[in-house]
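Input for the complex:
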Amino acid sequence: MTRLIVTSIGPASSVQDGGRHGAQRYGLTPGGAMDRLALAAANTLLGNAPFAAAVEIGPFGAAFTAREGAVRVGLCGAARSADIAGQPAAFNASITIPEGETLTLGFAKAGAFSYLAIEGGISGEPMFGSLAVNARAGLGSPYPRPLQAGDELPAKAASGAPERRIELPQADTGPIRVLFGPQDDEFGDEAKQLFLDSEWKNSPTSDRMGYRLEGPVIKHLHGHNIVSDGTVDGSIQVPGSGAAIVLMPDRGTTGGYPKIATVISADLGRLAQTTAGTGFRFKAIGMAEAQAEAKKFAQLLRSLPDRLRDIDSLELNIEALHDANVAGHAVSAVDAETWQAAD
Amino acid sequence: MEATFRPPRILPSGDSAITVEFSQHIDDAANQRVLALDRAMTATPIAGVTETVPTYRSLLVHYDPCQINFEALGEKLLALAKVPAPPNAKTRHWRVPVVYGGENGIDLEDVAKTLNTTPDAIVARHTAGDYRVAMIGFTPGWSYLSGLEKFLHVPRRQSPRILTPPGTISIGGVQTGIQCLAGPSGWHLIGRTPVQTYHLHRKPIFLLEPGDRITFFPIDEKSFAEQDKAAERGELVAELIAS
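Predicted:
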């Protein structure tokens, strides 16, 4: 059976998808990809459903080897060096790993998480409709834990479809936009102003549960204990220390610290890609604007198939595919007719 | 629901969720209203709402802003909170076995000292209580119970423990709770139950629902060990005495 072997992988790497929904009332967090746009783009390159399960790769390097058949993958998210047998592989593009060859990925150069989608998706046993890893809850498939070297991901043999690239809009570099609330009345005007006026840095202790921020101490008006209530992805909690934490997809479903503001859904992926030590700011916007941004983001996700392009740099790819063909049997590489076809 | 109730506050939790806040305190009447609104939303689904999360004092309503906007949903929720909610058809009463004290409840002696009484008296009071699942949250199956008698209220620990055992029964402030998975806790650990409120390979996966009635009864270490094995195999272990 064709499969992709995880030859090497760093921490914070796991199978993720669109998450599991409907069980937050039982304390089960949705989880899912940190950067939904990058996940959807990687899947779209291969004709997969946008939120199909893919490998979320943390900041360190990784390598994947195709066994018993060639495996076609899509790479999006945090850019990093990528090559197969010494031939560079492009980001925001699909590529076929010939049988027996290894795709080697370097450290993330900008951003934290990259997504490696596999043509046909990752097969596993969904729990609550998702393969996403939530190690604490014992959930995730094929492995209910972060990936380790030696793990095997069952895959479909590469279809031989022409490789594609995807044109994504220029990443916004502006402040991370937030909506105040639900507990902004636990903070005075001065604290709220300080929150908006300060530069924040993502702490190295951040993880998929929460991004701990380094910055000024935000003071509460009435102390830091509130009666626990529900959280969302992007809730900005301020615990007793005054050091803000942005809750991420593996958050607890409820929390007992006041939430000064919430990151808008359209900016969550961008925040997720903020590396430790990088400075950024928050900007408060109104509900109408935030919901217009949410619609724009949904529209962007829907537009992904229209953003696919043929790989036009013919020479480079003929070379890469030629190599592939020599090494294995994957695609009919030298015959451009067969891989240029589609549309 | 009486018409004289104060309307809840409609608070934004980002662009895709609304917190319907009935109270800022732990308050049984507010929790009843939360659960009533939750039931009303099940009975009369609102298009665009994707998931609801009842807590002690508020209902978190997740929605798709492409289908309904904040103002429109806020109005619908306020209207729904005014209408009498359908009665809870499935109030269930569970009897939950607990081995108190010793290595299974390492804080029982300290709690007794703090309250100027004996561990046995704490157990007697804790098992005499009639509790309700006010909310389930934080980690899978972590059930927060209301109804802890005033005598047993103890402030949370100064520093939380990083790892506490699965099945821990604890007291934190005015609440008592059943924790399912091992994890951090700042509460006082008084015992352990073999009952697994979350078990992936059992039907139902989640045993308890918000609103369920809970009473505890003491068991010894030997039966704990037996029932722990049975629970691991997927048996319920808790006794359902009314439905």
